[in-house]
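Annex B. Sample input.
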Amino acid sequence: EIMKRVIQIVCGSVLLLYALVICCSIAVNATAHAYIVQGTPPPDGTHKVAIVLGAATYSDGTLSPIFSDRLDTAALLYKEGIVSKILVSGDNGSTTNNEVNPARMSLLRNQVSDEDIFLDHAGFDTYSTMYRAHYIFKVSSAIIVTQSFHLPRALFIAHELGITAYGIHASDDNAALKDSVREQFADVKAVFEVLVDAKPKYLGKAIPITGDGRND
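Annex B, continued. Sample output.
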């Protein structure tokens, strides 16, 4: 009888967790759906900043394929005159983990001017990136660049924090099934962070995106 009760509790807990994941995923995707741009947006002057969400780099400083795809997409937006600044987030929390400086080099190779590249060295996750974009870099309107599995959550957080954001898909060619599965649970974290008005680990002085990225 005790074992039967334990099994019922475990099964009930699993069902509740599953329901929570589904509800959060629906909320995130419902918010983001209208802001995902199919194709390339026109250079209408509304969104002058591309926010590139960080991803892994390797020990030799090369970019992971997913990160490289994001940066290539942002560089294309820049060269087409759709954005005039690029803000790249990443984890630069230790001497052995530096995602943003290799990203700068990639953008420079793609003919993005140095002064138009801003690096968020404390963009440890998507929520921190969007929070710091708004409150540190003073971004009020942006185009977010990442893969399709990640874009709804990034847009959801951006809008909840007060950024008028649209999203552009980077190539999904290098995305894996595990990325989509992990994203379901990340949606729960995002909803929780928004509800409790979480603060990033680091804030600091303002670095307006309208300035010169070489001084960030």
